[in-house]
């Protein structure tokens, strides 16, 4: 299997090596966390660390099932630590260990322990973990492959648009690259990931067995990517389709899907009032290929799929991503970073003058001097500048992390 270079993630681990902090890597199942640890361990071995200094445990491996007891885990690790050298300890999918924080805390206070942990559940990783390990950890939030990373793993001499079509069709999960020429295998692989996350990471943790409701909700979200919706609107829509449910239940199930990292919520941001709006939000899938799996649309609504891809890329590049709200109009994405802000409009094409005017109008209504971008799939006149608004070809933008 060909490993995809993910230098930004690897750099994070290298940068915090030996620091007096617990290194946490969170992300959806199968996004590449274990492979990242493998690549990092190889890097350590190449930089003077011996194999005896490395302790690795993956709690989804039955060979380590007995170590899901925190006392047994602590005994196992400490009995293998070298007393006079730094020990690099990797605990993969540690959410399977009740009271794991007792082990991590005890290792943290040792001067010769450098601890790295992963988990696939956002509630555990950002909720409980923040309480359990306050001020003692740094977190790397992983996503499946970016478009740029995906292109590294593609074989054959494909055009850039063909690579993009493969990306949204064949999935951004790293292992799916092995099936790029067999669509049936991709669908089977994606179905396996989806069902595992839905049942093990969502319904089971919620203590629910209503698979049909969760499936209905996921299909509704997949069909309405990039649309402003509310729990009440979802409840009314599902009820009208014969699935009677109230908005409180929908809120609970939405939170479960967000916690399992299957979906992301983009809240609305009032650009003029500089505040978050509580009503309505947009939802995006962790992998755009899930949309085709769930609703079998055969590639329709490509504009919203593109929007989904751009949203995930903005998350990768850091900052908080919102939907911008103006008195008249909407900005697809507002990205907030310390001391700066960026605005993005996303469209398949703006070659028709009326479409271009429509997309530029909200950006022109913003009076500040922060960067404004219009991202399209246009190959004719792919770049332009409209009074400071930069039009860019979105595929080229996706390939270059510096924008």
SSE inventory with pairings:
Elements: H1 7-15, E1 22-26, H2 33-46, E2 54-58, H3 70-80, E3 87-92, H4 100-108, E4 113-119, H5 122-132, E5 137-141, H6 147-153, H7 160-170, H8 183-206, H9 211-223, H10 231-240, H11 247-259, E6 263-270, E7 275-285, H12 289-295, H13 302-316, E8 320-325, E9 330-337, E10 340-347, H14 353-364, E11 372-376, E12 384-386, E13 389-393, H15 394-399
Parallel strand pairs: 1-4, 1-5, 2-3, 3-4, 6-8, 10-11, 11-13
Antiparallel strand pairs: 6-7, 8-9, 9-10, 12-13
Description of the molecule:
This protein is an alpha/beta fold. The mean pLDDT is 93. It is 43% helix and 20% strand. It has helices at 7-15, 33-46, 70-80, 100-108, 122-132, 147-153, 160-170, 183-206, 211-223, 231-240, 247-259, 289-295, 302-316, 353-364, 394-399; strands at residues 22-26, 54-58, 87-92, 113-119, 137-141, 263-270, 275-285, 320-325, 330-337, 340-347, 372-376, 384-386, 389-393. The chain contains 15 helices and 13 strands. Strand 3 (87-92), helix 4 (100-108) and strand 4 form a beta-alpha-beta unit. The radius of gyration is 22 Å and the shape is globular. It has an eight-stranded mixed beta sheet with strand order 7-6-8-9-10-11-13-12. The longest helix is centred in the middle third of the chain and has 24 residues, at 183-206.
């Amino acid at each position: 299997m060909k490993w995809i270079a993910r230098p930004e993630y690897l750099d994070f681990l290298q940068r915090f090596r030996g620091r007096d902090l617990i290194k946490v890597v969170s992300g959806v199942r199968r996004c590449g966390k274990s492979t990242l640890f493998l690549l990092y361990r190889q890097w350590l071995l190449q930089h003077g660390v011996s194999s005896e200094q490395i302790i690795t445990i993956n709690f989804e491996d039955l060979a380590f099932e007995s170590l899901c007891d925190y006392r047994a885990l602590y005994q196992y690790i400490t009995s293998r630590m070298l007393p006079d050298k730094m020990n690099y300890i990797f605990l993969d999918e540690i959410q399977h260990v009740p009271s794991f924080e007792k082990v991590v805390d005890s290792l943290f206070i040792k001067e010769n322990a450098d601890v790295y942990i992963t988990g696939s559940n956002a509630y555990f990783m950002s909720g409980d973990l923040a309480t359990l390990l306050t001020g003692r950890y740094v977190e790397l939030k992983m996503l499946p492959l970016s478009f740029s990373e995906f292109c590294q793993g593609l074989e054959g001499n494909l055009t850039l648009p063909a690579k993009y079509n493969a990306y949204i069709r064949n999935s951004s999960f790293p292992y799916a690259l092995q099936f790029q020429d067999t669509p049936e295998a991709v669908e089977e692989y994606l179905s396996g990931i989806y069902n595992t996350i839905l049942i093990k990471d969502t319904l089971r943790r919620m203590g629910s067995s209503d698979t049909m409701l969760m499936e209905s909700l996921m299909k509704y979200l997949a069909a309405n990517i990039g649309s402003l919706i509310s729990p009440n609107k979802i409840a009314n829509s599902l009820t009208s389709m014969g699935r009677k449910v109230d908005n409180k239940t929908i809120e609970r199930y939405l939170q479960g899907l967000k916690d399992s990292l299957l979906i992301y919520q983009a809240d609305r941001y009032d650009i003029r009032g500089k505040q978050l709006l509580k009503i309505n939000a947009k939802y995006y899938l962790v992998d755009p290929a899930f949309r085709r799996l769930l609703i079998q649309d055969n590639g329709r609504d490509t504009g919203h799929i593109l929007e989904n891809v751009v949203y995930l890329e903005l998350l990768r590049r850091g900052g908080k991503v919102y939907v911008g709200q103006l008195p008249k109009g909407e900005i697809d994405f507002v990205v907030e970073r310390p001391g700066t802000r960026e605005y993005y409009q996303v469209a398949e094409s703006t070659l028709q003058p009326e479409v271009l005017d429509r997309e530029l109008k909200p950006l022109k209504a913003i009076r500040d001097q922060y960067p404004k971008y219009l991202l399209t799939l246009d190959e004719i006149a792919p770049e332009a500048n409209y009074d400071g608004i930069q039009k860019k070809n979105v595929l080229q933008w996706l390939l270059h992390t510096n924008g």
